[in-house]
Design a protein that fits this description.
It is a single chain. The chain is mostly helical and 298 residues long. Helices cover 52% and strands 1% of the residues. Strands 1-2 form a two-stranded antiparallel sheet.
Length: 298
């Protein structure tokens, strides 16, 4: 084996590399026996016997030497060799991964490549490391995770993306959620709703500014059979983008609807919650009086 212009053999390698560990010297001994040109890698990796061993095996297997610079650890290089030995053409990735690619990303890229994912569709330079695990989760289940691989990815959390995946799994669109601006608890709740027959009507009246309590009130209204003409009056947004009525008022409107009362007069925003309930009682009293009046004629 050549090392810095000198011939290293079994009789002098221990002395030549006496500053290295026994494990590293064992790798060098193996390279000498197999006539593996490991010498150019000893100075850089001599103190990492596992990496040195993986390079030695890679050289024996005629692995493209560029992988020795791209993989930063023996573990990463082992994965490269593993795929190569399975007959997978990993060299097509050499135009995609570079020496700047961190090992944590390389590990996922190799795993996804083995799964058959078209990794070239992904921009790993704008994919936060914190999302690698949830991307792995999604890709294993066949989701088009490139939808989340945008300049807005920094806004996403694992919880946010998983809620989107739940919605997608129920064959509903997530286009409106890709801006990353939605509250996680709202998105998670919508994920739960997405498997119900009410989802399409709920989402029709759901804006980013909705609160969890108002969203729950909206679902109650939809489940009650309230028509769109009524929902449009209740779940209205003002010029600043906020709902006009909060969940407390909506609950009053819903009570009126369930009692078959005309709740138009309850839509007065100047009324306090206390006044709303008083007016609700008046509407119910008026209705009952009319019913009693009609019954009294018979």
């Amino acid at each position: 084996m050549q090392y810095k212009g000198k011939r290293v053999n079994l009789s002098n390698y221990n002395k030549e590399f006496e500053n290295l560990s026994r494990d590293s010297r064992d790798v060098i001994r193996s390279a000498i026996l197999d006539d593996t040109p490991l010498g150019v890698y000893v100075d850089k990796f001599g103190r990492d016997p596992y990496m040195l061993w993986q390079i030695k095996l890679g050289l024996d297997e005629y692995l493209d030497s560029r992988w020795f610079s791209i993989a930063k650890s023996g573990e990463a290089l082992y994965k490269v060799r593993e795929l190569s030995n399975k007959g997978i053409n990993i060299d097509t990735l050499l135009d995609f991964v570079t020496e700047e690619t961190p090992d944590v990303y390389l590990g996922y890229i190799l795993r996804w490549y083995e799964m058959g994912v078209n990794v070239e569709k992904y921009k790993f330079d704008i994919l936060p490391e914190k999302l690698l695990n949830v991307f792995d989760f999604g890709l294993k289940r066949g989701f088009p995770m490139y939808l989340f691989n945008t300049g807005k990815a920094y806004r996403y959390s694992e919880r946010y993306i998983k809620s989107c995946l739940v919605i997608m799994s129920n064959r509903k669109s997530i286009e409106g959620f890709l801006d990353g601006d939605w509250d996680e608890s709202i998105l998670e709740t919508l994920g739960e709703y997405s498997k119900s027959k009410y989802y399409d009507r709920v989402i029709k009246y759901t804006e980013k500014c909705i609160t969890l309590s108002l969203l729950e009130a909206l679902l109650k209204c939809v489940k009650s059979g309230m028509l769109d003409k009524d929902l449009e009056r209740i779940f209205v947004v003002d010029e600043e983008g906020y709902y006009v009525y909060d969940s407390f008022r909506v609950e009053v409107f819903l009570k009126a609807f369930e009692k078959d009362l005309d709740f138009s007069s309850l839509l007065d925003t100047s009324l306090s919650i206390k006044d709303l309930y008083l007016r609700l009682d008046e509407l119910e009293l008026t209705k009952n009086t009319k019913i009693k009046g009609r019954l009294g004629k018979y």
